[in-house]
Design goal:
about 220 residues; alpha/beta; seven-stranded mixed β-sheet; 7 strands
Length: about 220
């Protein structure tokens, strides 16, 4: 893999694309602009001419090509990166509007073999908006681990059989949380508060289960 940052698409990118490429109702949500502006997108109104040109001619086409899931490595070294969660089924949130094939799909955490374009195309909303997994955690049954990256809360079910470690964000949390093979690492950096931060992890200690200042979430973490 080349050096630099690889990005995946999330709900904010989708909102920008809905704003940039509006579709007439009833085929799409009729208030895409309002949704973007209510969720931190007012910056699009403050751009000067050159910035507008860059947005429409360069940045928006790049965003449109982003993948929803990035998979790195093979076998025991494999991991995934997504925005919200890798679970099928409909996400019932106030801020969502589209009910596609995912509304009739059974709720199921994906396995590595299910992560392909055919499956992902039917579950865009869970990939970008889902918060069902993080809400499953029973804090009374969770355990805390101190790591060099900060506190980690491991749920009553830290691993989902057949799914490699998957890094996700979307839901700002006070600490990192591990549940159903999903490592939630969004610490609300956008808020710029004392208890918020940007988390940058090294996958190797995460995968290996290293106890030397690392993250005990590799192959040694409890099975379900």
């Amino acid at each position: 893999m080349s050096r630099g940052f690889m990005r995946c698409e999330g709900n904010h990118e989708d909102m920008l694309l809905d704003y940039a490429y509006p579709v007439v109702a009833p085929y799409a949500y009729g208030r895409a602009t309002d949704l973007l502006l209510r969720n931190g997108g007012r910056w699009v109104l403050d751009l000067d001419k050159s910035e507008q040109d860059e947005l429409w001619e360069d940045l928006v086409p790049r965003v449109a090509k982003l993948p929803y899931v990035i998979t790195v490595g093979e076998g025991a070294a494999r991991f995934h990166v997504a925005h919200a969660e890798l679970m099928t089924g409909y996400v019932d949130e106030v801020s969502t509007w589209f009910k596609g094939k995912e509304s009739s799909s059974p709720k199921q955490v994906l396995t590595d073999t299910m992560i392909n374009d055919e499956v992902l195309a039917t579950m865009i909303e869970p990939l970008t908006w889902g918060r069902r997994l993080i809400r499953e955690i029973r804090m009374g049954e969770a355990s805390e681990v101190d790591t060099s990256y900060g506190k980690l809360v491991a749920s009553h079910k830290p691993r989902s059989s057949g799914l490699a470690l998957t890094y996700v964000g979307h839901t700002p949390l006070k600490c990192m949380v591990l549940h159903a093979s999903h490592l939630f690492i969004d610490r609300g950096a956008y808020a710029r508060k004392r208890n918020s931060c940007l988390v940058v992890l090294d996958h190797q200690p995460c995968r290996s289960g290293s106890t030397h200042g690392g993250m005990i979430v590799g192959p040694n973490y409890p099975d379900c």
